[in-house]
Every structure is written in structure tokens, then in C-alpha cells.
Write a structure and sequence with these properties.
By secondary structure, this protein is mainly beta. The chain has one helix at about 1-15, and strands spanning about 30-35, 35-40, 50-60, 65, 70-75, 75-80, 85-90, 90-95, 105-110, 115-125, 130-140, 145-150, 155-160, 160-165, 170-175, 180-185, 190, 210-215. Strands 3, 4, 5, 6, 7, 8, 9, 10, 11, 14 and 15 form an eleven-stranded mixed β-sheet that branches. Strands 1-2-12-13 form a four-stranded antiparallel β-sheet, with no helix packed on it. The radius of gyration is 23 Å and the shape is globular. Residues about 20-25 and about 195-229 have low confidence and may be disordered.
């Protein structure tokens, strides 16, 4: 039986020699409200990826429009738009042709590498809440769930979570069911609300910015891709 004790000892030594497994990286977003930490954690794999947007907020009356170049001006600032720019009117999708000189608008924009300003989100009839916005969108496919911890006592779980922080103004956390799919050619998460159950109540409908979200790759604000600077 000596060989059995010898084998057991060898296996024990091998087990002790193995390096400890590093904990899996989990993408998180953290804010503090009224002294309590609110932490959002993506528990599933990086597919779909977590998306982070960094935007500057602008507002005012439209002073000029160029339908050919697809630009709009607020005073001396000119904003470029493209096929990925989202427009909203009274909470519903709109388009560039719905814009009119004199309309009040709220823009989410970012400076590009060439110094130009690109508008990612245009809301007609709205005003900016502050000067800058950070938005994180997390989605986990089944059987994983996004986890939100409120302080040390409460937790909530869902398929899709969105965290919005307007610098030095306010912050919001949204949690809903549904699914999200990463569109690589657009570098966006396309999220859909939870399907309505027969005879039941469906999940909250799409809100501006919740249905789709674009990210950043570049160190400057506004380049396409994932990640933050």
C-alpha cells in the first residue's frame, strides 16, 4: 500500500503547485447615489459585447440646414450627420427631413479626429440636461443575466441594463428583459424589448437610446467602436 500513499502525496504536491486560476474579468459600471454604490455587472460572455458611449451634449435652435451635405448648425457650430445618426420627435423615430430651421433640438455629438463634430442622436423639441453624457449598455444572453447591486442589501437581474450619467447633473439605471444582437458592420447593439406574454403585460417599450446603442474605439470622443477613454 506504500505506492498508494506515495501516489496520493504526489497528486497533492502537483495540486499545490498549480497556480491559482485568475478570476474571470467581468465588465462593470459603477455609480454612487445618496451615499449608496450601484454596481452593474455583465456576468456572461463578451458576445454581445458591452457598449460604452461618451458624448457631449448641445442644444439650441437650428440656425441652418444643408440637405445635400446632411449638416445642421446651431449658431457657429456645424454638425455632421450620416446614416447612423438617430432622430427622435416626441419619442418616435424621425429623419433628417423632419428638421426645420428654428426648431429647438438636443444633440449628442462628439469631436472627430479631424476636428469636425458628428451628431449621433438628434431629439427635436428637447433640451440638453447638462454638458456631457456617459451611457453604458450591457446585455447577457440566457442563461446569464446582468446583475445590479444597490448598496449591500438589494440585487436585481435582467437581460438588458442601461446606465446613463449626465456629468454633475443626474444618473439613471434601466433594467429590462429582451434580447440584444451585435451588428458588427455598424458597431452597434440592436436591442429588442421582451416579447409580450399571452394575456400578460409586455416589457417597457423602446426608448430613445435603449433600442440601439453605438460605442467608441478611438481615444477621442465619437469614433466608432467599443470601449471608453
Amino acid at each position: 500500500m506504500r505506492w498508494a500513499w506515495w501516489l496520493a502525496g504526489l497528486l497533492l504536491l502537483l495540486a499545490l503547485a498549480q497556480p491559482e486560476a485568475e478570476p474571470a474579468f467581468q465588465t462593470t459600471a459603477e455609480i454612487e447615489r445618496r451615499g449608496k454604490r450601484i454596481v452593474v455587472v455583465k456576468t456572461g460572455p463578451d458576445n454581445p459585447p458591452a457598449i460604452i458611449e461618451l458624448r457631449d451634449l448641445y442644444g439650441g435652435a437650428i440656425t441652418a440646414l444643408d440637405p445635400e451635405k446632411k449638416t445642421l448648425s446651431l449658431g457657429d457650430k456645424v454638425f455632421l450627420t450620416d446614416a447612423l445618426t438617430r432622430y427622435w420627435l416626441e419619442g418616435k423615430p424621425a429623419k433628417f427631413s423632419d428638421l426645420q430651421v428654428g426648431q429647438e433640438v438636443r444633440l449628442e455629438a462628439a469631436e472627430q479626429n479631424d476636428g469636425s463634430l458628428k451628431a449621433f442622436d438628434v431629439r427635436i423639441g428637447a433640451r440638453p440636461e447638462g454638458k456631457a453624457l456617459t451611457r453604458s449598455l450591457f446585455a447577457d444572453p440566457p442563461p446569464f443575466r446582468v446583475q445590479i447591486t444597490f448598496g449591500e442589501d438589494a440585487r436585481a437581474y435582467g437581460a438588458i441594463a442601461r446606465v446613463e450619467q449626465v456629468r454633475e447633473v443626474n444618473d439613471h439605471v434601466y433594467l429590462t428583459g429582451g434580447t440584444a444582437r451585435y451588428i458588427e458592420e455598424e458597431d452597434r447593439l440592436r436591442a429588442g424589448p421582451q416579447a409580450r406574454a399571452p394575456g400578460g403585460r409586455g416589457a417597457a417599450g423602446k426608448e430613445p437610446g435603449l433600442g440601439q446603442s453605438a460605442g467608441l474605439r478611438q481615444p477621442k470622443r465619437g469614433g466608432p467602436g467599443r470601449g471608453a477613454h
